[in-house]
Amino acid sequence: MKKQHLVYLIIGIVATVLFYIFRVEAYESIYSVAGYSDQLYNLGLYDIIPLITIAVAWVMAGIYYYAINSVRFDRWYHWLVMLALVVVLAPVVGYLVNSRIFDENGLTYVAESLTFELVNIMWAAVLFVVASFSMRWWSTNCHHTPIPQ
User: CB under 8 Å to 134, separation ≥6 — which residues?
Assistant: First the structure.
């Protein structure tokens, strides 16, 4: 194992942890609505939704590089399919969790929730790229995807 590859993994983990630490600022710097954002904070959704996004991004990167890990699935456009899955799956799961918790508390913020999840698409994509560049080096067949070394 090259030291450089381990450094990439550490940088990816640190970047992900920093995203989680500054999650409220990260989301609210792009989208903030007074009542809705307050409810996200009060109901703990600023804790749950970023964790879902992080988990989906890192797990899907792990699946691509270690479970699929096929020479038939090692092109940039295959990686792009995984990215597309991440940017669909993370916001959908986040929206479902958000809706369920809001419904349980008698709150209705449908338009705001949808807009918030559009922002989450961006963060899911960024986290998937970070995860990809952090863990791709140990894949036997897909380590050169999406950008050759």
Answer: 8, 9, 11, 12, 13, 61
